[in-house]
Amino acid sequence: MRLALEKALVKAVRKAVDVGELPSVELPGFVVEVPRERGHGDFATNLAMLLSKQARMAPRKIAEALIQNLPHSTRWLEKVEVAGPGFINFILDPRWVLESVPLAVNRQADYGRVQQGENKKVQVEFVSANPTGLLHMGNARGAALGDSIASILAFAGWQVTREYYINDAGNQVENFALSVEARYFELLGLEGEVPEGGYHGQDIIDTARRYIEEHGDKLLKTDRRVRLETLAQYALAEKIGGIKKALADFNVPYDVWFSEQSLHDAGKVDEAIQHLRERDFLYEHEGALWFKATSLGLEKDEVLVRNNGLPTYFAADIAYHMDKFNRGFDRVINIWGADHHGHVARLKSAVQALGYDPDALQVLLMQLVRLFSGGEIVRMSKRTGQFITLEELIDEVGLDAARYFFIMRSADSHLDFDLDLARTQSNDNPVYYVQYAHARICSIFRQLAEQGRQVPKADSVDVELLREEAELALARRLADFPEEVALAARQLAPHRLTRYVHEVAGLLHSFYNIHRVITDDVALTDARLLLMEATKVVLCNALTLLGVRAPEKM
RNA sequence: GCGCCUGUAGCUCAGGGGAUAGAGCGCCGGCCUCCGGAGCCGGAAGCACAGGUUCGAUUCCUGUCAGGCGCACCA
What we know:
Helix 1 packs across helix 3 (59-68), helix 5 (137-155) packs across helix 18 (481-491) and helix 19 (494-514) runs antiparallel to helix 20. The protein has 554 residues and is of the alpha/beta class. Among the domains are: 2-92, Gyrase A, domain 2 (2-Layer Sandwich), CATH 3.30.1360.70; 98-111 and 428-546, Isoleucyl-tRNA Synthetase, Domain 1 (Orthogonal Bundle), CATH 1.10.730.10; 171-249, no CATH class. The protein is built from 20 helices and 15 strands. It is globular and about 90 Å long. The strands form four sheets. It has a five-stranded parallel beta sheet, sandwiched between helices. Strand 8 (282-285) and strand 9 form a beta hairpin. The chain binds one RNA strand of 75 nucleotides through helix 2, helix 6, strand 9, strand 10 and helix 11.
């Protein structure tokens, strides 16, 4: 509807110019929006006010001219008026909102799909936590956000790949192995010390214990290199398995698990460095190989290969992103914790240096999570081993509440996660409010089935019997769903949909409290049943995009 | 010191160049002979501060103040 009005306005401008009621003007970036005030119509536009400077005319005069030249064919348009400083308010035939009801019912799981992505390929890489420990609250936020963004993009017409980058190479793996070894020694009654920068968590002790249970103490006598390598491989495999399970339990399905080590093994890091060398972005200094980031406007250059001959994490990341683009993605989205923001500019510069479009890489920074319990901040750190794991979180508050809480807030908002609140199984919890709306509709349908009846076919229902304010308000919001999907996709903002779905649930509850669905009036009952079915479709589709279940009963 | 993010209701957060700034929780007051009261209806309460751009700024720009996070031959 909004689109139709925008098109009509564009035509109106052209025609007004043609007939000489407006001077020739360039079309500004105007908006057609839903006014806050109901008295200001169903839609309103600021177009006339934006044109006033160019046209050197009073906004209200321009508005009049535009209204005179609106195409007569505009659907549902009942009345147009000039208001305030020059707004054009559109008043529609109230029946227009009812179109959404049969549409949603007929399209079912496809209602809300839009073609924004034009089937282009996008990769969403998220979580990618080091496989040296368990997933914590920050990772969990990334998981909820990333998965939901991926789902929304897919629904908006993109071909989406969900990917996890496993940092199974480099320095931290070394420290990891040393930490496991220390615990291995301790458990076997020997002296062991977790190194500086090592991992002190209880999970490392558990890992060492499991290794001993399976393989005994035979590593005590082997060469240290072999011992460390063996322990590292064992522990990494275990951690990666744990991470995969936790994410699967969190209802986050990945398409690709990409190993950093595989880049090294395949020579892709060297290859990337070679590319940069050919393009003259490298130089040596004090035994290290440097990337000339400053030549692309950055503050300082970056080391790619240390003077000990080992490539840095940055070098591997460059190779990784080269690989991403070589795989044919039109767009690459990384979801990172805000503590990595310093890395964004240099990675983009490297992408540019390699000859790819740096704007095809989009890094979504997610502010960190502060965990509250009993009114106290719970500090999280892998080093000290103090954190709530993703698995523990799911146990504590449940899958749906956890996922909903993480995406309720925009990514760039610091998130205070109140464990006590989230685990409360009461109406304090917004996710229940929404799920309850869905369950309520299902309950009506169960009542219906007990009477041996069912929801009617969309085409056999006269939706124009829906005339009550609560009915129209609900249908109106259902009609907005495709547009809400498009906005959430464009802004990579799942939290928009949590707001939206909460509103739809509220409208359903309001309606439910005033009116009965199943009555003696068969025609009206059918119309309301169809409205319920449409609402159920929207609730279900939106919740699915958020990674939250839509239960039939609670 | 430099960079990024954030200052909106008592609390947690949406919104956003326009016509009376929203939601949840909390607080106050109402609603079940009725398809699930995990619900509904009503009330009090707010754009950190100072400049600037604009017909119009809570929104954009600059500065100040406050909080968070970065600024390694770690990842």
